[in-house]
Amino acid sequence: MVIAAVNPNDVLEDASEGGAPRTGARIDIRHVSHGFALRGETLPVLDDVTLTVQPGEFVALLGPSGCGKSTLLRLVAGLEPPGKGSVEADGHVIGAPDPSRVLVFQDPTLFPWRTVRENVALGPQAQGARRGKGAVEVEARIDAALERVGLTEFAHAWPHQLSGGMAQRVALARGLVNDPALLALDEPFGKLDSLTRMRMQGELVALWQRARFSVLFVTHDVEEALVMATRVVVFSGRPARIISEVRNEAPYPRHRDDIALVELRKGVLAQLGIEV
Question: Do residue 95 and residue 185 come from a single domain?
Fold first, then answer.
C-alpha cells in the first residue's frame, strides 16, 4: 500500500540547493530474507524484503521494536551477508563495510580518552589517511565535518563534557568526515530528551539537504519518520516484511501540527494496527 504517493524526485529537487546534482548512493535490496541461529534453530528476522533507495533520497524504516529494521541496516552496511537475496550499492554487490556507507548507532560510542576532534578523526586515521601527502586535505575534512554539525568550538573538548545531543553530533561528524554516499542511522535520537531530539531532527535534515547523500533512517516513532523523510517504509512485526510505503510531498521545514501530516500519521498507525 502506498499512501499520498508523489514522485520522490520532485521532493529531492526542492530539498537540494540550487538544483545541484545528487551525489548519494543507489541501494538495491532484492528479495532479502535473513535469520539468526538460536539454540540450534533459525530465528527468521527478514522476510522477502525488496526495496530501492534512489540517489539522494531520505528513507525512514518504520516498524515495531525488534522487527528486523536494524538487521537490514547491518546488511546494507556490509557487516554481514544476507541469508537469501542480494544487497547492492550503485550496482555492485555489498560484500564488506566501506567508508562510503556509514552506520550511526543510537549510542554515540565515543572514546572517552580522545577529544571531539580525535574521535571524528578515527575513520581517516584507521585508513592511514592522516599521514603523507593527503594529510592536509584530511585535516580540512575534519574541520569541515565539525563545522557542519556546529561543534568547531568544542573540537578539543572531552566526551564527558558534552550533552547527549552534542555527543550524537560528534558521531554524525565522525561519519560525515568520510563524505559518505549513504548515511544509515539506527534510532540515533532514541536516548535524547524530546526537545534535543526535535532539534537534532532538524539539524540532520539540514545536513542532508546540503550534502545530498542518501539516508536510511531506522525509527519506531511515526511522527519522527514523517517529519524527516521523503519516503517512509512501514514494516510488520518480526520477521519484517514491507506492508506499506508513504511518500511525503510536504516542503521543509515540516510542522508536526500540519493537517496533512496528522492524517498521514493516522494512516501509518492504522497500518501498524493502532487506531487513534
Answer: yes
**CATH code for the domain of 27:** 3.40.50.300
In angstroms, what is the C-alpha Rg of the chain? 19
Determine, yes or no, domain membership for 105.
no
Helix (H/G/I), strand (E/B), else coil: 267: helix
If we measure between CA atoms, which residue out of 237, 231, 235, 238 comes closest to residue 264? 231
Look up residue 13 and give its amino acid: E
Residue (of 214, 175, 173) closest to 26 by Cα position: 214
In this prediction the pTM is 0.84
What's the pLDDT tens digit per position in 29-87?
999 999 988 887 888 999 999 999 999 999 999 988 888 999 999 999 999 999 999 99
Per the structure, the count of domains in the chain is 2
Helix (H) or strand (E) holding 38: strand 27-38
Domain membership of residue 146 as a residue range = 110-179
Q: Do 46 and 86 share a structural domain? A: yes
186 plus 170 within the same structural domain: no
Q: Residue 111: count other Cβ atoms within 10 Å of its Cβ.
A: 11
Contact partners, residue 68, CB within 8 Å, separation at least 6: 34, 45, 46, 235, 238, 239, 240
**pLDDT of 66:** 85
CA 62 to chain centre: 12
As a whole number of Å, the end-to-end CA separation of the chain is 19
Helix axes 194-211, 164-176, angle to 10 degrees: 20
Structural domain includes residue 122 = yes
Domain final residue pick, 149, 179, 209: 179
